[in-house]
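thoughts on my protein:
***
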Amino acid sequence: MSTLPGLLRHQTETRPDAPFLRFLGDETFVSFAAMDCDTNRIANALRDLGVRHGDRVAMILPNSLTLVRLWFAAAKLGAIEVPLDPELRGRLLDHVLANSAPAVVCCHGSVLESLAGRSPAAVVVVDGTAEDARAAGVTAARIHAFEELLDGEDSTPDAHVHRADPLAILYTSGTTGPAKGVLMPHNQFHAFTETFARNLELSADDSYYTPLPLFHADAQLFGVYFPLLYGTHGTIDGRFSASRYWDNVRASGATATNMLGAMAHILWKRAPAADDADNPLRVSQALPMIPFRDAFERRFGLTLVTAYGQTETNFVTYDTPGDRREGSCGRPAPGFEVAVVDTEDRPLPAGESGEIVVRHEHPWTVSSGYYGMPEQTLASARNLWWHSGDRGHFDEDGWLYFDGRIKDVIRRRGVNISAHEVESIVDEHPAVLESAAIAVPSELSEDDIKIVVVARDGAELTVDDLIDHCVRHLPRHMVPRYVEVRRSALPRTPSEKVAKEALRAEGVTSETFDRESRKEAPV
């Protein structure tokens, strides 16, 4: 029963009227039975549009019940969902559409113009009409409004879906090149969610809240698939808002969630409120774990756990509420081998930092590689290990510690410097909201370090203050040469990671202070 259609059928048979999903702002939960009925109709309508087993169904949609319905309907046909960021435009959109080659593109009416001049076989318009699509320049031969799909037959499709069949293609942020589509089988979703539940010690008594986008793994796996697997319910928000976060958590009634590390930092640095701990959450995952975990737990009245993993691999290490170690992202999960290796793929001893590599013991618990990119897949899976591109080390007791991205290492005057380490020190300054360390070209060859810092609202932060802080807390070779203080947020990817490629493209600007010139730019 480790396929999505099998799980939905089971929950419909055992708890048909139980609440399953709600999108914040809608007071009504959709039940398992209603989801099953609706997705039967949509699946049969998609079949009539020509969608078959193994075909791709692209969805350019915001967080919505419609997105989930289309995802589940595609799964019932053995087709593959391809959820895409609604903000994709131009060359970036062309790349993912060319790579995935969808049989149908389901597009929200507000972004129809992004499909102008492109010719998918069929287009389904959500919150719009076929006439709207043609007026926007969409030239597909077949264009239908989403409401037409709800008129499909209500019989259950007989697609013979297997746990090894692909369920989704989820695109990575593509920070080192074109976005790569991670091909995820049905059983990987099942195994990923089970590991996550062990990490947080979740049960069917828990409910879930997430404000993360449904075109990435977090919200799909934990906001939707966890309630499906455990027969409980989830609440999905439109997006993360620091100012509304705790009110939205209270409105959801959820007992569990997951936070990206950046989210936890931003929430922590907001002014304390008397009702901070007055919320229903008992546990949250934080990735990566924040250095002030204990204080965060006391202030917000919950327990934080962490893990290490990627969309490609599952969570391969994790801790639990009762078994944690400061600074670590856990011990290897059952069913996975995790090692740290040097540049020749030779295992390193405890305490030595190298690339984190992974392999699985059970079939179909990790991705099948990058869709349509065999060379990238083989490069990442060399020597029978999946190469994460992340740097880490083990301690003597087998706990893993994350040391930053290998691609995010800055080489300065013959020394490798972790951007993650520089940022962790800068973020300790009380006037800093967040920071990003990047490599910029040096006239002495190799790299110099630039730190881009966002000041907290109302806080006084000068370049000299920040440099003094770095000089006090960092080795000399790690003190940034270039410093830029901003009042606006750092650019982010859809998964709320800092978009460092955008910062690297900016380089040294007129707003950047160069310590070696001793001429401070305006901030």
Notes: Confidence is low (pLDDT under 50) at residues 519-523. The CA atoms of residues 78 and 160 lie 7 Å apart. The domain at 413-514 is CATH 3.30.300.30 (GMP Synthetase; Chain A, domain 3). Residues 32-48 form the longest helix (17 residues).
